[in-house]
Amino acid sequence: MARGKAKQQTFETAQAPVQAVDNPILCNPYEWPTAFWEYRAGVPQKAQGRRPASYWFKEKRTGGAEKDLFEEENRDDLPLVNRLREDVKRWREAGYRGSTEVTKDLLKHWARGDRSRRLFFCQREAVETIIYLLELRIPGRSSRTGFHNFECSDEDLHRLLRGERPGFALADKDFFPKLIDQPADASLIGLRRLGCKMATGSGKTVVMAMLVAWAFCNRGRNPSSSEFPSAVLICAPNLTVKNRLQVLRPDEAQNYYDQFDIVPTRYREYLNAGKVLVTNWHVFGRKSPNSEGGVTYRVVDKGEEDDKAFTLDRLGELARRLPILVLNDEGHHCWRPKVGAPEAAVVGDTREEKKAFQEEVEEARVWLDGLDRINNAGLLGPGRPCVLATIDLSATPFYLGGSGHIEGSPFPWLVSDFGLVDAIESGIVKVPRLPVLQEGGDVTKDDAGRPDPKYFRLWHHINENLKPGDKTGRRIKPEAVFRESEGALKTLASQWRQRFEQYRNATSTQVTIPPAMIVVCHDTDTAQLFYEHISGEREVEVPLDNGKTETRTVYGQSEVLEEFSNEAGVRRTLRIDSKLLSALQGDADDSKDEKIAEMRRLIDTVGKAGMPGEHVRCIVSVSMLSEGWDANNVTQILGVRAFGSQLLCEQVVGRGLRRRSYTPNTETGLLEPEYVDVYGIPFTLIPFKGRPKDNEEPDDKPRNHVRPVSGREALEIRAPRVESYVYDLRLDGIDCDVGKLEGFVVREEPTAVYLDAVRGYKDQADDPSLDRIDEYVRQDRKDYYDRVHLQAIQFK
């Protein structure tokens, strides 16, 4: 991420903060959005309809949105996403016409309003869009939909698949959408890529489970077909995400297919027949030709792995099930430098930022190189790709500075968009709450509800108030950073304490897991200083009798809050430095270090009852916490670093957006707001709420938690999941000797047979809808004739 000083100053000083709103939540999370906040001169106004898919951009416009008098500054649209939205909406309203019966069953099952765990509209729309493209439009079956005209025409779709500019993209733009990611070597087969932008906390893992179910259930119904994959490769950016994604394996005990009722009972056996492999991008690294069994020998020289050997080794059993479907979780890590662009200089101001950028570049190179090699392995024959499609899921699918692409520009293969602002307006994530100016002391209340500039642009405030001697070269000394941000830290900590008191005083029927606060610093030394002040824990050199010294850990009182103090054997405050962060993001071998393994267990279980991280109250980190960290009890975030882009703001604040409760209000149908207090992260154009005054009641209190009472297991009542019912005729005196029945002779072979699954009693007279032939499965010989020539049949 480019974070140069000039750009940082422009970003942090030129952007006017927007006004707060009383309640940012406008939409039902389970339905098509019907309203959004529109910003005019920094003032939010409620607009009817759905916000067009777009993004905010600062340097160069890359879409097709026309400027008008009331348009948000520097907004650009995503023309492909907006066109596909309309096409998919029409297809949805037509009952998913043209898709297989299995697909229709799944889509209708996911849309049911009586589900015990309803699926968000954004989850269903993302899946619908991918299915619509892979099952109908891309294979050339547009006519099956019954429509003749499309917002994204077949001609434009073919251009997108070839990487050419579609007719709806403006010719004077450098950027245009495409559905192919072509390697620099033009002789290689490009990856077909489809991207879904989904805000952190909006349920990307459930979307992946839905896509796996669609593929495996359709393949199970048609086992000889290769149109639907029977194998899915899921790629993760780090070990935390990899472990969390194990729930996507159908054979996993806590799998999401059962937890979220993804697959109807009648299709469960089809799901089990597929294979899911969850892996890290690290496995795509090339092996040394001098290694054997994990040991390097000077006398061994096996030569470089070719693409075929690479694919067989990395995919294992999946290599026998080609072509496969690839799901990239946190897909913004998987990008290709722009062809022909000069080699990028290292980006970043601090040592940690420069190192993080170099690691980001290496991760992208290895990840994409591995997928290219699998796709071009040739195991299906010359010129045939081994990857059906690569689906990217990310909250921030944008190019980094230094990639050769325009910084902050979106991946061109985005087909679905439901970003942070949409998620806030639908109540799917927590609402950011910023400090606003109030009466008292030397400040006066801002009637517009604008953020307090001191705590809103904290890093800018720190730079403006530096004293002589506060810098070493260009680097700000940690003591100066702490001095200038101490007020913000203690104010935010006092708000954390209010939440903590609520949860400490909660009744036995309420959620009692304490809230957590995150402090994000700009370098390791500053993070260490903050950690010592917050936790009271520090390392000291103790002289020994032999004249040497020994490093020991001593524990004192926290200078911020006593509730944050560490004790021997009790970790209430954690610190994640760059070395530990790298280990946490690595593969399983890193966990052999006992200290790292213990920290991994703590980090991965923050906010989870009965787990090692249950009582963690504060986390101090450099840069940002790794993706996949899904704690839902974060209530405060402090950013003590430069923020050069809205992308970085969204990535950092995203660590605190996951909700605790998804129970909607029974009267409005909307989710009740939950909040995260944010200081020092100057995001703009995002709906937020102002902090309540000191004498006001907090907005969100501990929720009641319904759970079984220990010792009453014998009183449990279980209700079976019933799909239909049958009449038991054994006591009705009806007897039938099938052998004496007159035979039925078919004199004319039917041209088609329609089958319906037997699911109990059906009365044609009581339910006229049963006469609809399109509800049944047509059995004919079309698929057979498509695969076998008539001449071959006659010859045999």
Number of helices: 21
Kindly report the average pLDDT value.
82
Share of β-strand residues: 15-25%
Overall 3D shape: globular
Please give the number of β-strands: 26
Give the termini separation: 64 Å
The radius of gyration computed from the alpha-carbon positions, rounded to a whole number of angstroms, is 29 Å
Class from secondary-structure proportions: alpha/beta
Main beta sheet strand tally, sense and closure: 7 strands, mixed
**Helix proportion range:** 25-40%
The low-confidence runs, each spanning 5 or more residues with pLDDT under 50, are: 1-17, 65-73, 438-448, 764-773
Task: Explain this structure.
It contains 21 helices and 26 strands. The strands form eight sheets. Strands 5, 6, 7, 8, 11, 12 and 13 form a seven-stranded mixed sheet that branches. Strands 20-21-17-22-23-14-24 form a seven-stranded parallel sheet. Helix content is 28%, strand content 15%. The longest helix is centred in the middle third of the chain and has 27 residues, at 478-504. The protein is an alpha/beta fold and 796 residues long. It starts with a helix and ends with a helix.
Features of this protein?
7-stranded parallel sheet; globular; alpha/beta; 26 strands
Task: Describe the structure concisely for a colleague.
The protein has 796 residues and is α/β, with parallel strands linked by helices.
SSE layout and pairings?
Blueprint: H1 5-14, E1 35-40, E2 43-48, E3 54-56, E4 75-77, H2 79-93, H3 101-111, H4 121-137, H5 154-162, E5 180-181, E6 191-198, H6 204-221, E7 231-236, H7 239-244, H8 256-259, H9 268-272, E8 275-280, E9 291-292, E10 295-296, H10 307-315, E11 324-329, H11 351-375, E12 387-394, E13 414-418, H12 420-425, E14 431-434, H13 453-456, H14 458-464, E15 471-472, E16 475-476, H15 478-504, E17 516-521, H16 524-535, E18 537-543, E19 549-555, E20 573-576, H17 578-585, H18 594-604, E21 618-622, E22 634-640, H19 646-653, E23 675-679, E24 689-690, E25 753-755, E26 777-779, H20 782-787, H21 790-795
Parallel strand pairs: 6-12, 6-13, 7-8, 7-11, 11-12, 14-23, 14-24, 17-21, 17-22, 20-21, 22-23
Antiparallel strand pairs: 1-2, 3-4, 5-6, 9-10, 15-16, 18-19, 25-26
Helix pairs in contact: 2-4, 3-4, 4-6, 14-15, 15-16
